[in-house]
Each structure stands twice: as structure tokens, then as C-alpha cells.
Amino acid sequence: MRILSGIQPSGTIHIGNYFGMVKKMIESQNDGELFAFIASYHALTSVKDKEFLEKNSYEAAINFLALGMDPEKSTFWIQHDVKEVLELYWILSNHTSMGLLERAHSYKDKTARGLVASHGLFSYPVLMAADILLFDSNIVPVGKDQIQHVEMTRDIATSFNHAYKKEILTLPVAKVDEEVATVLGTDGAKMSKSYNNTIDMFTTSKQRKKQVMSIVTDSKELDEPKEWENCNIYNISKLFMNEDELKDLQKRYITPGEGYGHFKLTLLEKIEQYFKPYEEKREYFAANPKKVREILEFGAQKARKIASEKIKEIRDIVGLI
Ligand code: ADP
Ligand code: TRP
Q1: I need a surface site. Which of 44, 66, 123, 316 has the fewest CB within 10 A?
Q2: Cα–Cα distance measured from residue 38 to residue 102, given in angstroms and rounded to the nearest whole number
């Protein structure tokens, strides 16, 4: 079973990204053959800044490696190292109706938010279909916003298979993890870099302390009992504490004498403990850019081997001899 996932190269990663997506992806290395790539071509639809794209792509690579992406076990590469995807993108474009693309929610949302309505942005679901179909992916783990793109991929593959009367492209299935609740931010809204309410994973102690201390609470005093249900500190603590630790925290909430500042410091300490081993690994990769480049190249070689065979088969079928 092949699992494939593309990751947008956003530089900073917050605990919402981690518990919502990254952790699951790393764990999926035990469920099947994982193919994961940094979606650098996709990023061009919104990023028009060389330094920004380079830096963020690199950061994405070291974050994933630090968090447990295993380049031996899985295939991990950066999208633009495997150019076969662009050829498939063009071939598939001719099996994609305008109507299908016009119905894409993400295009409508992104242009409504001010992104330039470029051809790249409009045709991006076809590139995503090429990413998926080039590797005969069976399972594509995605967030809710990406389900439609996997469905479009199935439509495109069906239309292609029908045109050439052969089941040459494998129809993928989107896997949405209903279990993963939305992680809430320091203000109680969905944690998102756009809302400035994040607790970042890899950051300075000073910045992390600032983020944790900024968690919004009510204004109960030290000598008043407090409610842990719906408290933003408690909600975030649930991600880092076991049941006994949470029971203990509940007791501290209802017993007068401590304030929210104390609970925040306990949470801060737990977060630091949790990410410490990853931070050390990340520092190693951050100090060895050559090693990171080698790992990505090694992944690209593995990916290219599969991609070049598949594209050859497809060229053959369509008459590109
Ligand atoms: P952001 O909203 O900060 O820009 P992205 O849109 O880049 O985050 O999300 C990257 C991945 O992390 C997606 O798979 C998304 O589903 C997941 N994710 C982002 N924020 C959260 C959150 N608050 N809770 C759970 N998952 C999240
Ligand atoms: N479009 C996805 C996102 O914005 C990233 C992505 C690109 C992807 N290609 C993919 C995800 C292929 C899964 C499979 O998050």
C-alpha cells in the first residue's frame, strides 16, 4: 500500500500543524510505504520571493527530518527534483475539463483572499493529481480542505483510463482523520499562522515563553477556584499531559491559591520537555545543510526511479514515442 503526501513549505511549524498533520504522517511510516515530498512547485502559486521559498523549503526539510521522517524507510524528496511530474501534469491537463477546475473551492477561496488569479493557481489541482498518480498512490492523507482535490484526481484518472481503454492510473482514496480535533490557539480560535495565535514548535525559549504566557484566560484571582473546562491553558495542556497529570492539574484549578500564570509555567515546562529531543535533532540538521541536501537527493533518486518508469508507460500509451 502506498501512502503519499505533499507538504507545503511553510517555514515555522506550530503545535496545531504537529498534532493535526505531521505526527500522523510520521506514524504512517509504519502502516505502508510512505512517499512524502515538499511541494515546492505548488508553493510558486503563492510565493514570489526566492529567499523566502529557499529558506522555507529548507526549514520544512529539517523539521520533518528532526520529527522522525526516516529517509531509508520512506521516500522523502523535494518536488522540483523529480521533473517527470510536470510532464504528467501537461498530459493530464488534456483530460481535465474546465468545469472541473472551475468548481474547485480552494481556487475560489484563495482568489477571494486576494491571491492573483493566475493560470498556475487555477490549474494547481492538475499538478496535485500528477503528484498522486505518478506514484500509483493508494492512500492520500489530507485535511478536509484537500478532499476535493483527491476527488478531482479520481475524476481525471478515470477520464484518462477511459480514453485509452486501460486501467493505467491507480485511483487514490483520501484519508481524513476524523479523530484529529482542531488544535485551538492561544486565543481559543483555531491555531493558525494567519491568526497570530500559535505556539511554535521550533523557536527560542524566550519566544515560546511569550507565546505560552499570552494564552487568553478569564480574570479570576489567585484565591478563587477556577474552571478547567474550556480554559485555553487546559485545552493545550491536554496535548502534552497524561491522565494523571491532567487530574493533578484539575485539582490545582479548583483549589484556591494558584493563578493562571502558574498553570502556564507548568504547561511551558511540559512543552519544552516534549520537544527537547526533536530540537537536538533539528540543530544537527540545521548545522549540516550538505547532509540535508544529500538526504533529499537520495529520496529524489528513489522517487525518480518509480516516476521515470511510470511516465514511460504513460508516454507509450498516449503515443509519445
Ligand atoms: P496554518 O493554518 O497555520 O497556515 P496550514 O494551512 O499550513 O496551517 O496547515 C498545514 C497542515 O497542518 C494541514 O494539514 C492542516 O490540516 C494542519 N493544521 C493546521 N492548523 C491546524 C490546527 N489548528 N489543528 C489541527 N490541524 C491543523
Ligand atoms: N495541496 C496540498 C496542500 O496545500 C499539498 C499537496 C501537493 C499534496 N500535492 C499533494 C497533498 C499531493 C497530498 C498529495 O496542503
Answers
A1: 316
A2: 26
Give residue 99's Cα distance to chain centre. Answer: 28
- Sorted by where each begins, the domain ranges of the chain are 2-183+288-318, 203-282
Q: How far apart are the first and last CA of the chain?
A: 31
Task: Name the residue with higher pLDDT: 115 or 92.
Answer: 92
| 246 torsion bin: left (phi>0), alpha (psi -120 to 50), beta (else) | alpha
Strands 2-7, 33-38: pairing is: parallel
Cell output for 278: 526533536
| Cell numbers standing for residue 130 | 500528477
DSSP 8-state assignment for residue 18: I
| CATH 3.40.50.300 is held by the domain 2-183+288-318 | no
Q: Is the CB of 142 under 6 A from ligand 2?
A: yes
> Would the pTM count as exceeding 0.85?
yes
Which residue's CA is the nearest one to ligand 1's atom 26?
20
- Closest listed ligand to the CA of 141: 2
Across 289-312, average pLDDT: 98
Q: What per-residue confidence (pLDDT) applies to 21?
A: 86
Binding residues for L-tryptophan are: 131
Classify domain 203-282 by CATH architecture. Orthogonal Bundle (1.10)
Half-sphere exposure of 242 (CA within 13 A, CB side): 2
From the CA of 25, the nearest ligand is 1
Identical fold, 2-183+288-318 and 203-282: no
**For residue 20, what pLDDT is reported?**
87
Return the best residue to mutate from 17, 25, 56 for the ligand 1 pocket (most ligand atoms within 8 A of CB). 17
C-alpha 188/C-alpha 191 separation (Å) is: 8
Confidence of residue 241 (pLDDT cuts 50, 70, 90): very high
- CA-nearest of 198, 200, 144, 196 to 175 is 144
